[in-house]
């Protein structure tokens, strides 16, 4: 089970996820080893637990196994010069992981809470990625993630860290052909279910949606609603 992957150190957490086959590629394993999760969560005591944690501002950081799952799913499109979008960049954890997977590419984060953007940038600097913030290899934008970042599009890979009521057309438009999106979707059939979808765009622009697994994410919503939550 995923929650059994918790460790006493970052290396132990990542090794446990590999042993559980949640991490299957050496590239994802090495990238996640380079990013100490303790730099991206408020509590050092629970930094290496395989569970979601609150990070303030009505936001959470997902469980590490979901980050591993996302990185593995997007890996075919995370080549060294890829352009990557992280919607709901939160504490900046996935920005760091994506950077290590596309070291000569560019990683764009977007979050609609100014305090979270500031917090993420501080976390990235503390994790040794201040130069990447300055030279533009990592960019973190404060705006509504549902609209994407048109000025930086198209994106080889898009990761969405909150559940949307459907797949935003703006994100589909900004996905490169070919490209892949990893997104949790709140089903609109009255079931209350959320599922991860892998959304692929072919070279000719054809869209294929594949349901991966059931999940429970915070909603991709307005900043004011998130604060009230």
From TrEMBL:
One Pfam match: PCMT
EC number in record: 2.1.1.77
GO molecular function: protein-L-isoaspartate (D-aspartate) O-methyltransferase activity
Source species of the chain: Mycosarcoma maydis
PROSITE patterns according to UniProt: PCMT
One cellular component term from this protein's GO annotations in UniProt: cytosol
Localisation: Cytoplasm, Cytosol
Similarity section: Belongs to the methyltransferase superfamily. L-isoaspartyl/D-aspartyl protein methyltransferase family.
Reactions accelerated catalytically: [protein]-L-isoaspartate + S-adenosyl-L-methionine = [protein]-L-isoaspartate alpha-methyl ester + S-adenosyl-L-homocysteine
Name of the protein: Protein-L-isoaspartate O-methyltransferase
Function: Initiates the repair of damaged proteins by catalyzing methyl esterification of L-isoaspartyl and D-aspartyl residues produced by spontaneous isomerization and racemization of L-aspartyl and L-asparaginyl residues in aging peptides and proteins.
Subunit structure: Monomer.
Source domain of life: Eukaryota
InterPro entries in alphabetical order: PCMT (IPR000682), SAM-dependent_MTases_sf (IPR029063)
Keyword set, alphabetical order: Cytoplasm, Methyltransferase, S-adenosyl-L-methionine, Transferase
Gene Ontology biological-process annotations: methylation; response to stress
């Amino acid at each position: 089970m995923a929650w059994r992957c918790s460790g006493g150190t970052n290396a132990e957490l990542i090794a446990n996820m590999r042993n559980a086959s949640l991490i299957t590629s050496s590239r994802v394993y090495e990238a996640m080893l380079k990013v100490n999760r303790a730099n991206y969560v408020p509590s050092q005591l629970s930094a290496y637990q395989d569970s979601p944690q609150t990070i303030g501002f009505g936001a959470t950081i997902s469980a590490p196994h979901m980050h591993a799952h996302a990185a593995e799913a997007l890996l075919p499109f995370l080549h060294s010069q890829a352009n990557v979008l992280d919607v709901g960049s939160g504490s900046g954890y996935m920005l760091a992981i994506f950077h290590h997977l596309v070291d000569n590419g560019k990683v764009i984060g977007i979050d609609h809470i100014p305090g979270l953007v500031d917090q993420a940038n501080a976390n990235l600097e503390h994790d040794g990625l201040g130069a990447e913030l300055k030279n533009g290899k990592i960019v973190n934008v404060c705006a509504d993630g549902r609209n994407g970042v048109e000025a930086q599009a198209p994106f080889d890979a898009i990761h969405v860290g909150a559940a949307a009521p459907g797949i935003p057309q703006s994100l589909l438009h900004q996905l490169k052909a070919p490209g892949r999106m990893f997104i949790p979707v709140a089903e609109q059939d009255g079931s209350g279910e959320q599922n991860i979808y892998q959304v692929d765009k072919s070279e000719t622009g054809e869209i294929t949606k594949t349901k991966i697994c059931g999940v429970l994410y915070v909603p991709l919503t307005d900043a004011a609603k998130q604060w009230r939550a």
